[in-house]
# Entry
Amino acid sequence: MMRTNLATGLNRLTTDLLTVGGMVDKALAKAVDALKRRDLEASSQVIREDDLIDRQCELLEERAIDLIASHQPMARDLRRLITIVHVAEELERMGDYAEGIAKISLKMGEEPTLKPLIDIPRMQEKSSDMLRRSLDAMVTRDTIEAKAVREADDEVDDLYDQVYHELLTYMLQDPSTIQRATYLLWAAHDLERVADRATNIAERVIYQETGSLNGADLSRN
# Structure
C-alpha cells in the first residue's frame, strides 16, 4: 500500500508539473508575441499570470518534499522526486523570464521596436522547443533525447550572439537607438537564459535515470 501511494503521488506530481510547463511555454510565446506586436494589454496579462505560475511551482515543491518525508523513497523514486523539485524551480525561473520580457514591453510603451523582430521570436521558438523536449524526456526517461536538448542550447547561444552584434551595430552607428536596442538585448538575454534552464532540466533527466552527475553540468544558475 505504501508503494502504491508513492507511485500515485509521483504520477500526479508529474502530470501537474507538465501542466505548469505548458503554462510557462504559453507565457513565453505570449510575451514575445506581445513584444513583437506592441500589445501592452497582453504584456500586462503575462505579468499578472506569472503569480499563478509561481504559486503552482511552490505547491509542487511542497508536495514533493511531503512525499519524501512521508514515504522515505529510495533509489530511482527518490531521484524522481528530487528531479521534480529542481524542475519546478527551473519552471518558476522561466516564468520570471517571460514576465521580464513583458515588463520590457511595458517599458517601451507605445514606441515601436527598433527593427522588425525576427531572431528574437526564433530564440523563443527554439528555447520553448527545448523546454517541451526536456519535459518529454523526463516523462519517457529518455537520456538520449535529454542529451540532444543539451546540444540544442548552442543554437540559441548562436542566435543570441547574432542579435547582440546586430543591435550593437545599431547603437554604434546611431546613439539615439541605444535605449531601444538595450530593451531588445534584455529580451534576448532572457530567452538565452530560458534555453539554459531547459538544458538544466535535461541534465536532471540524465541524473534521474543514471543516478550519476558525471557528464551532466548542473552548475547553470
In short: The radius of gyration is 19 Å. The domain at 2-210 is CATH 1.20.58.220 (Methane Monooxygenase Hydroxylase; Chain G, domain 1).
